[in-house]
């Protein structure tokens, strides 16, 4: 066995300090065979002491781990390649969704029909919710899960800014506890919160009325349950709210999204309006 010169000097220093201290050293060494071939060996070296605690010789157990090391390097390189690919995928999806929101904004500006403008703005908000999730994942090192509190905080702030541009004097209160969920569930939550906040800001505060909208995400009463709620102190729900639920695309979408989450939707009495969803978080997939 010949030294290949690839093992750092610090490794040998630590090896001898350990052995001269009467302790067992273990680690990896880069060596060269007599035929010139390089290899990596995992070694366990122990000093043998006599009755006076003096080192008489050493015993070593060694194993050629060259192939294992090469496999680990290949696996790491493959992992880095996949991470880079996922970054690029989320980046491209986010950019494409942002192009769609820009097109909808242009079409809304061109239209002279208030109803058409309203529909296009609502579609823009829904697409933005999905684009923001991909941007959050793109900026993160984790692709299988997202902190729902961080994501919803960004989304809620953007929804409020969009409504404030139309003269809404409403304050947003956020009470969000950190909760990691899978990407599929985060997408559904983004769409759901976008609908609930948009409805509260649009219908709860007519004629520029001031008020407060509160978004909460907290553990529920039962073990493993969580509750997300949107509450406002606006004018409250109309008397014919139940009839309107069947005709409103936004409220139908809310019901469908809650069902997709496997949750339950409770609509509280006034004053104001309260929508609360109780659900079980989706356990993120761990690579």
UniProtKB/TrEMBL annotation:
<dbReference type="Pfam" id="PF07568">
    <property type="entry name" value="HisKA_2"/>
</dbReference>
<dbReference type="InterPro" id="IPR011495">
    <property type="entry name" value="Sig_transdc_His_kin_sub2_dim/P"/>
</dbReference>
<keyword id="KW-0418">Kinase</keyword>
<protein>
    <recommendedName>
        <fullName>histidine kinase</fullName>
        <ecNumber>2.7.13.3</ecNumber>
    </recommendedName>
</protein>
<keyword id="KW-0597">Phosphoprotein</keyword>
<feature type="domain" description="PAC">
    <location>
        <begin position="25"/>
        <end position="77"/>
    </location>
</feature>
<feature type="domain" description="Histidine kinase">
    <location>
        <begin position="88"/>
        <end position="287"/>
    </location>
</feature>
<dbReference type="InterPro" id="IPR000700">
    <property type="entry name" value="PAS-assoc_C"/>
</dbReference>
<dbReference type="Pfam" id="PF02518">
    <property type="entry name" value="HATPase_c"/>
</dbReference>
<dbReference type="GO" id="GO:0004673">
    <property type="term" value="F:protein histidine kinase activity"/>
</dbReference>
<dbReference type="GO" id="GO:0005524">
    <property type="term" value="F:ATP binding"/>
</dbReference>
<keyword id="KW-0547">Nucleotide-binding</keyword>
<dbReference type="Pfam" id="PF13426">
    <property type="entry name" value="PAS_9"/>
</dbReference>
<dbReference type="InterPro" id="IPR001610">
    <property type="entry name" value="PAC"/>
</dbReference>
<dbReference type="InterPro" id="IPR036890">
    <property type="entry name" value="HATPase_C_sf"/>
</dbReference>
<keyword id="KW-0808">Transferase</keyword>
<dbReference type="InterPro" id="IPR005467">
    <property type="entry name" value="His_kinase_dom"/>
</dbReference>
<keyword id="KW-0843">Virulence</keyword>
<dbReference type="InterPro" id="IPR000014">
    <property type="entry name" value="PAS"/>
</dbReference>
<dbReference type="InterPro" id="IPR003594">
    <property type="entry name" value="HATPase_dom"/>
</dbReference>
<dbReference type="InterPro" id="IPR035965">
    <property type="entry name" value="PAS-like_dom_sf"/>
</dbReference>
<keyword id="KW-0067">ATP-binding</keyword>
């Amino acid at each position: 066995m010949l030294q290949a010169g690839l093992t750092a000097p610090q490794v040998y220093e630590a090896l001898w300090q350990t052995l001269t201290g009467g302790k067992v050293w273990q680690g990896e060494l880069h060596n060269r065979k007599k035929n010139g071939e390089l290899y990596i060996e995992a070694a366990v070296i122990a000093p043998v002491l006599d009755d006076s605690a003096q080192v008489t010789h050493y015993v070593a157990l060694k194993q050629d781990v060259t192939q294992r090391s090469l496999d680990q390097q290949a696996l790491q390189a493959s992992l880095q390649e996949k991470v880079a690919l996922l970054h690029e995928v989320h980046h491209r999806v986010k950019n494409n969704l942002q192009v769609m929101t820009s097109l909808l904004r242009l079409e809304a500006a061109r239209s002279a029909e208030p109803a058409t403008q309203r529909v296009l703005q609502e579609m823009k908000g829904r697409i933005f919710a999905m684009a923001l999730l991909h941007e959050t994942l793109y900026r993160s090192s984790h692709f299988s899960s997202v902190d729902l509190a961080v994501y919803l905080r960004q989304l809620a702030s953007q929804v409020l800014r969009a409504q404030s541009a139309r003269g809404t004097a409403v304050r947003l209160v956020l009470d969000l506890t950190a909760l990691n969920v899978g990407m599929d569930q985060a997408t559904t939550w983004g769409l759901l919160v976008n609908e609930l906040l948009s409805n509260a800001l649009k219908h709860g505060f007519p004629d520029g009325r001031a008020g407060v909208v509160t978004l909460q995400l907290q553990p529920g009463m039962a073990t493993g349950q969580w509750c997300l709620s949107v509450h406002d102190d606006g004018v409250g729900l109309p008397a014919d709210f139940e009839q309107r639920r069947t005709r409103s695309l936004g409220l139908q979408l809310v019901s469908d999204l809650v069902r997709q989450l496997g949750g339950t939707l409770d609509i509280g009495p006034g004053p104001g309006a309260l929508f609360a969803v109780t659900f079980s978080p989706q356990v993120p997939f761990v690579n």
